[in-house]
């Protein structure tokens, strides 16, 4: 079974992570007809199929028993069952086989339970088995060997093959170790001996050490990553205020159409949008026409219709980052709003800009405006941390004394 994702659903305003796979569902009206269906599984245990039908693990088990949902096309299952009933059909050796046990309905229910655990951040049966391997190699007692056997057998049978991550030996060291002395491994394999158990233990000990060393090496590149659960993204939606911008600055001040006059390269611009489109123009006259536009919408339309500067596609990211930097350096109150977003990713949405600059949701979009805002936020935080206590006190007083109204024009959002 191949699981696909990520996917999610929203429940009471909370995002619930999920994954999905393909199954066969019996047609509601034609009982002998089956159609391919998506089965969605979520971190809270909810399972949906057929668009609107939902169930849980116990309900899924009932659907499989009644044949409402099957894991294979009905004709394929019938062929397999006929083959198994054939007289004289050779029995497959479990020890020599390089394939896992056939997937059954019961095994699939266990697999779904594992997927729910994975999505919820809880250990799966495979995780618990590997924990039991580590515990046994640390203290190889008879009791821990039995616990390891129970943990291994709890893994769905059709997934007990590459649990150790070894494509060559597969899970055979585990199977040898968990077979009692004097018994045949898998029933038709070699007889388990003390030497076989010692060899399997040595293999698992080396494997555990290798995994731990790999974790240590992996930890180095991620040593400076943020700790704790990631915070939800901050979404900057496109907004319109026909009567002018609100007096209290909200997250709308982070958008490029917000009226926050600033100086860049010796010229004054009313918004970042005006500056971006004016600076993209090849001719000085076009630059001035865009700069003089009464609204952001007019500036965007004028700027989009003029000849572009040579090499502009390769420069525009640097220009936009410089404009954002100038805006927030010259408007401490706006910088405060940007810093208040913390470490959250910033998602810049809307419909008036190219997908290069905004996030387009499932339709794509590169969200460069959001990413550059995160960069400027990081620079502001670094500059803030470099200030002396006296400088921080003075900056706080300046922000408190600065009124947004004195920094903005009278016209609101375009």
- Mean model confidence by pLDDT: 89
- Number of separate structural domains: 3
Q: What is the helix/strand order?
A: EEEEEHEHHHHHHEEEHHHHHEHHH
Q: Kindly state the number of beta strands.
A: 10
The structure class reads alpha+beta
The helix tally amounts to 15
Say what the CATH topology of the largest domain is.
Tetracycline Repressor, domain 2
- Principal-axes shape call: elongated
Sheet having the most strands: 6 strands, antiparallel
**Which homologous superfamily in CATH is the superfamily of the largest domain?**
YbiA-like
| CATH secondary-structure class of the largest domain | Mainly Alpha
Strand content: 5-15%
Helix proportion range: 40-55%
- Under the CATH scheme, the architecture of the largest domain is Orthogonal Bundle
Q: Detail the poorly predicted runs.
A: 402-414
Present the secondary structure layout.
Layout: E1 4-11, E2 14-26, E3 34-42, E4 47-49, E5 53-55, H1 57-66, E6 69-70, H2 74-85, H3 105-119, H4 125-138, H5 142-154, H6 172-178, H7 194-219, E7 234-236, E8 262-264, E9 267-269, H8 272-280, H9 284-291, H10 296-304, H11 312-330, H12 332-339, E10 346-348, H13 368-385, H14 389-401, H15 404-407
Parallel strand pairs: 7-10
Antiparallel strand pairs: 1-2, 2-3, 2-6, 3-4, 4-5, 8-9
């Amino acid at each position: 079974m191949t699981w696909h994702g990520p996917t999610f659903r929203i429940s009471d305003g909370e995002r619930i992570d999920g994954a999905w796979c393909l199954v066969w569902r019996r047609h509601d009206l034609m009982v002998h007809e089956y159609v391919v269906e998506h089965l969605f599984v979520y971190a809270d245990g909810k399972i949906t199929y057929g668009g609107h039908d939902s169930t849980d693990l116990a309900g899924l088990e009932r659907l499989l028993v009644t044949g409402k949902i099957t894991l294979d096309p009905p004709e394929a299952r019938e062929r397999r069952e006929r083959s198994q009933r054939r007289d004289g059909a050779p029995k497959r050796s479990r020890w020599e086989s390089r394939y896992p046990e056939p997937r059954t309905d019961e095994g699939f229910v266990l697999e779904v339970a594992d997927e729910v655990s994975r999505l919820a951040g809880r250990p799966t049966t495979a995780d618990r088995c590997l924990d039991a391997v580590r515990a046994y190699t640390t203290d190889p007692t008879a009791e821990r060997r039995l616990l390891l056997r129970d943990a291994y057998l709890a893994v769905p049978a059709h997934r007990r093959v590459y649990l150790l991550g070894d494509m060559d030996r597969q899970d055979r060291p585990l199977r040898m170790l968990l077979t009692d002395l004097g018994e045949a491994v898998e029933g038709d394999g070699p007889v388990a001996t003390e030497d076989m158990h010692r060899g399997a233990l040595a293999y698992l000990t080396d494997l555990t050490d290798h995994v731990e060393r790999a974790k240590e090496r992996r930890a180095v590149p991620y040593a400076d990553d943020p700790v704790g659960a990631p915070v939800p993204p901050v979404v900057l939606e496109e907004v319109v205020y026909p009567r002018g911008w609100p007096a209290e600055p909200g997250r709308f001040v982070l958008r490029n159409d917000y009226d926050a006059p600033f100086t860049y390269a010796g010229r004054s611009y009313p918004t970042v949008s005006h500056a971006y489109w004016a600076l993209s123009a090849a001719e000085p006259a076009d630059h001035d026409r865009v700069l003089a536009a009464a609204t952001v919408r007019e500036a965007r339309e004028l700027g989009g219709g003029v000849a572009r500067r040579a090499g502009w596609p390769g420069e525009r990211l640097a220009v936009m980052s410089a404009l954002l930097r100038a805006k927030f350096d010259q408007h401490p109150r706006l910088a405060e709003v940007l810093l208040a977003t913390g470490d959250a990713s910033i998602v810049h949405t809307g419909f008036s800009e190219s997908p290069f600059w905004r996030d387009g949701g499932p339709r794509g979009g590169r969200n460069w405006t959001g990413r550059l805002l995160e960069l400027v936020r990081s620079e502001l935080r670094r500059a803030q941390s470099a200030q002396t206590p006296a400088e921080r006190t003075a900056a706080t007083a300046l922000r408190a004394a600065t009124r947004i109204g004195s920094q903005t024009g009278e016209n609101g959002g375009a």
